[in-house]
Design a protein that fits this description.
It is built from 18 helices and two strands. By secondary structure, the chain is mostly helical. The mean pLDDT is about 85. It is found in: Membrane.
Length: about 375
């Protein structure tokens, strides 16, 4: 293969993996021709908080902290139900702190390894883990990019945010447990590789830094101070972490910030979107349905400037991560792992994820209606 073919292949792969980034940049540039780029619409606070979280989570992942916790909870003599419960529970609760995509990047490979060693089909387990990550991350501001933006954009208190997300998280966890418990149980013999945490002092240091980030998210510490602390400590302790930050996500957010700022200034757009968000129920379903087509993060950025109803937005975009793989970028992570590591066909995985998502909607949508109407 010549150099031109290689370059074309690399460009094709980049476009395939970074389609959301490309769309956000194109929209930002195109909309800037209307009346100039609106750089004032960029939320530097959100970008700093996202950067902080990515640095700390990347460090903890590199030190294999979550892998260690996961393997310690498993035994050589396991049942399929026990493995399902452990992996789904780990993914659900870890996503609240380290984001849905990182939880899946960490625990889906572990599930695939266990499935291979114990000779069972991992597709259903990975689907359940994906749903657990999407539903679990909805609880906290740092669980997902859209939650972090909603928390800061609407200037919410912890009480206001958790009053909406905690009831839904409880219902979601009960639903996931029931879903797991109704599955057939089989006895499995799994050989588990021992994992040791290296660099224990650095692990403790980044746990402390994680607490610093949490303090900045919940407004106990100035986010600029937290950003400086993360930068300085990482620079002197482990510069390599800077290379592993997902800068494409930061650029994607910046692109959408500029695009939303540009189009929000157009009177016709303002009238149209405001007209759609006429009441909480409409806002909820528009958030949920639009997420299926353009993903929940862009939908959050698009709708938030036009409404004060954060409750419907946060419930809608988080539920919108289910059903369509496009609904949440985290879904694509699981999909890629399964397709590349197993003989599962793409359509088989997509059908199974959509099927169980529809079951989840039967529980989540009525719960959301109750929260929106009565709370």
């Amino acid at each position: 293969m010549d150099s031109k073919s290689l370059d074309k292949q690399k460009l094709k792969e980049f476009c395939k993996h970074e389609i959301v980034l490309i769309v956000s940049v194109v929209l930002a540039i195109a909309s800037s021709f209307i009346n100039g780029p609106n750089f004032g619409s960029i939320s530097y606070k959100d970008l700093m908080l996202l950067f902080d979280l990515m640095i700390v989570v990347t460090a903890l992942k590199e030190f294999k902290v979550l892998d260690y916790i996961g393997t310690k909870l498993l035994h050589k003599d396991n049942s399929s139900r026990r493995i399902y419960i452990i992996m789904v529970t780990l993914t659900f609760f870890s996503s609240m702190l380290i984001t849905d995509d990182v939880a899946l990047i960490t625990f889906v490979p572990l599930a695939l390894v266990l499935a291979k060693k114990a000779n069972f089909n991992p597709v259903k387990l990975v689907v359940f883990q994906t749903m657990a990550a999407i539903l679990g991350c909805a609880l906290t501001p740092m669980g997902s990019s859209q939650n972090l933006y909603i928390f800061t954009h609407f200037d919410l208190t912890s009480g206001e945010f958790f009053a909406v997300t905690l009831p839904m998280a409880i219902v979601a966890f009960i639903f996931l447990l029931v879903l797991v418990l109704v599955q057939k149980n089989k006895k499995l013999d799994v050989a588990i590789e021992e994992i040791h945490i290296k660099h224990k002092k650095l692990t403790i240091l980044y746990f402390v830094l994680f607490l610093v980030v949490l303090a900045s998210v919940f407004k106990l510490l100035n986010y600029e101070y937290a950003f400086i602390i993360i930068l300085v400590v990482t620079f002197f302790v482990n510069k390599k972490l800077f290379k592993r930050v997902d800068y494409s996500l930061l650029i994607t957010f910046t692109g959408f910030f500029i695009f939303i700022g540009n189009v929000s200034a157009i009177p016709a757009v303002k009238t149209l979107v405001s007209g759609l968000l006429t009441d909480p129920i409409h806002t909820y379903f528009i958030s949920l349905i639009l997420s299926q087509f353009i993903s929940n993060v862009p939908v959050t950025l698009l709708l938030s400037p036009f409404t004060h109803d954060f409750k419907s937005i946060v419930l809608g975009v988080n539920a919108g991560g289910l059903f369509s793989l496009i609904g949440s970028m985290a879904s694509i992570i699981s999909y890629k792992f399964v397709i590349s590591e197993t003989k599962t066909s793409p359509i088989t995985y997509i059908k199974k994820f959509a099927f169980y998502s529809l079951i989840a909607f039967c529980v989540i949508i009525p719960t959301a209606m109750v929260l929106i109407i009565f709370f």
